[in-house]
Amino acid sequence: MQLDPSQLAALVAVLRHGSFDHAAAALHVTPSAISQRIRALEDRVGTTLIIRSSPARATEAGARLARHATELSLLEADLARDLSLGVEPGKVRLAVTADSLATFVIPALAQVTDLLYEIVVDDQAHSADWLRRGEVSAAITDHAHPIQGCDCHPLGTLRYLATASPDYIALHFPDGVTPEALTQAPMLRFSQKDRLQHDWLHQLTGRRLLPPCHDLPSPQGFVEAARRGLGWGLNPEIMVRDDIARGALVAFHRDLPMDTPLYWQVRRAVAPALEALTRAMRRAASDHLI
Predict the structure, then answer these.
(1) 116 by DSSP, 3-state: which?
(2) What distance lies between CA 97 and its chain's CA centroid?
(3) Claim: this prediction has a pTM higher than 0.90
(4) Roughly what angle, to the nearest 10 degrees, separates helices 60-82 and 31-45?
(5) Are 44 and 61 spatial neighbours (Cβ–Cβ below 8 Å)?
(6) What is the rounded distance in angstroms from the CA atom of residue 140 to the CA atom of residue 128?
(7) 3-state class of 31 per DSSP?
(8) Which residues form the domain of 8?
């Protein structure tokens, strides 16, 4: 079945930008033109592709078509590079963790300048879901086995240390980092999805502790909050090494780090077009991870 490229582009734009108006602005056409293209595409395939909500969402068929269109554009851009045709770079959507974005992902992306990037940030335990739904072309995840239709590349291990400021430790742990003190001391976590601190507490105490939490969805903000004594939290060792060395932060129970293996999973259909990015991601990870 031959599909109209302009209609596929409209579908991808609506789902990427969340509305017909924003998609129209991105494609430099009118909202009416976007609506007509989507309607014609739905007539062509015989099913609804977009749920007209705010933001607009894909039906299962719409997600599959959008994935096909995105993968096709990446492959076409890769072919154009090989043939030196000088077309616009392809755009790739990636799901990565916030801590990997704050450490090694940006250096990797900067090595591959003939792609445009759209980054989705999610926890390493949930980023694989974006791949399963076909909403991204590659992801950084904690899944060691290939997700269906994907190639899996080990990146290394991101080591976390429990850290807090000296004043915070003096105030909240005067008798040591005990289970009783940890139950009362304010804790930092990235979001409600973030189980890292709770898993570490369980390893340390053998108990499911529920301390009061600050939700702070920023790796840099996480470190700064620990420096300022807002709470304790698990920070990537590579982000707090200097703070620990100069005494701005203290790593307690340093003999109990939390090691998180990370993997780069890329959809097999576009793996050739993303080969340079995969190499860059693995190189950058080797410089920052264990």
Answers:
(1) strand
(2) 4
(3) no
(4) 110
(5) no
(6) 8
(7) helix
(8) 1-65
